[in-house]
Specification:
By secondary structure, this protein is mainly alpha-helical. Helices cover 82% and strands 0% of the residues. It has helices at 8-33, 37-55, 57-85, 91-95. The longest helix is centred in the last third of the chain and has 29 residues, at 57-85. This is DUF4229 domain-containing protein.
Length: 96
């Protein structure tokens, strides 16, 4: 678990807040134009999804890369544990 990047929680939090802010900004603009609040929130959700993918592309790539690295290290640890439970020696154990 020490291989998990330290910036992943920060990047994920910033990404989620930015997505919510984008939806809120679209909803506020629509509300100022005269669209009812509930309708503007729903439109903000629908418009905010693709708009967020375009505007937050770099942050999305950092979050995706961090999650992939974390999942890779978890998969390696899981495979090592399974081989130990079967009684097999891993490549690291036989080299040492």
């Amino acid at each position: 678990m020490s291989e998990t990047p330290d910036h992943l929680p920060r990047d994920l939090t910033v990404y989620l807040i930015a997505r919510f802010a984008l939806v809120a900004a679209v909803a506020v603009v629509l509300s100022l134009v005269g669209v009812p609040l509930l309708v503007s929130l729903l439109i903000g959700l629908v418009v905010g999804l693709p708009l967020g993918l375009l505007l937050l592309r770099g942050l999305n790539q950092r979050v995706t890369a961090g999650l992939a690295k974390r999942n890779e290290s978890r998969a390696r640890a899981r495979a090592q544990l399974r081989s130990q439970l079967r009684g097999e020696t891993s490549a690291d154990d036989s080299a040492a």
